[in-house]
Design a protein that fits this description.
This protein has 149 residues and is an all-alpha fold. It is built from three helices and no strands. It has one domain.
């Protein structure tokens, strides 16, 4: 295989590479959210242990939501990571197929579809986390609103 023969292969492989880059940014966002969940959980747990929480029932409710959110974000990160791994495998299959002049059409379709399905699953979990964070915020605002009244 000559260098000019690689140009079309590289052009085909650019799509999954861009997908990896985009999902990488999504993973960064999700890992930051997970870190924030951990920080808030530690803060509420410490308040409960030191009996500084004015309303322990609400703090426990928030901790329950935070634990659920941590599990959801962990699953979203796993699904996004699987999507990146499938995209990387797709690139390898494209290059191996081109290098040895083999037809891996079914594998390419399967890998790409699985990659996108995993990404969709990750995004759905991410949306679920955002909805749960709003629920926790309502609990927090309810606590602050009760104190102001």
């Amino acid at each position: 295989m000559q260098f000019p023969d690689l140009i079309p292969i590289l052009q085909v492989a650019i799509g999954p590479v861009i997908l990896i880059s985009g999902v990488g940014l999504l993973l960064l966002t999700m890992s930051n959210r997970l870190g924030r969940i951990f920080d808030r959980t530690r803060q509420l747990s410490q308040e409960l242990r030191l009996a500084q929480s004015a309303e322990p029932d609400r703090a426990v409710a928030q901790l329950t939501i935070l634990l659920t959110r941590a599990r959801i974000v962990r699953a979203a990160i796993a699904a996004a990571s699987i999507s990146v791994l499938l995209a990387a495998l797709l690139i390898i299959v494209i290059f191996v197929g081109a290098l040895f002049k083999l037809s891996f059409a079914a594998a390419v379709v399967g890998l790409f579809s699985s990659c996108l399905a995993s990404l969709i699953g990750s995004l759905l979990l991410f949306i679920r986390d955002i909805n749960l964070s709003l629920k926790a915020l309502r609990l927090e605002v309810g606590t602050a609103g009760d104190r102001a009244a």
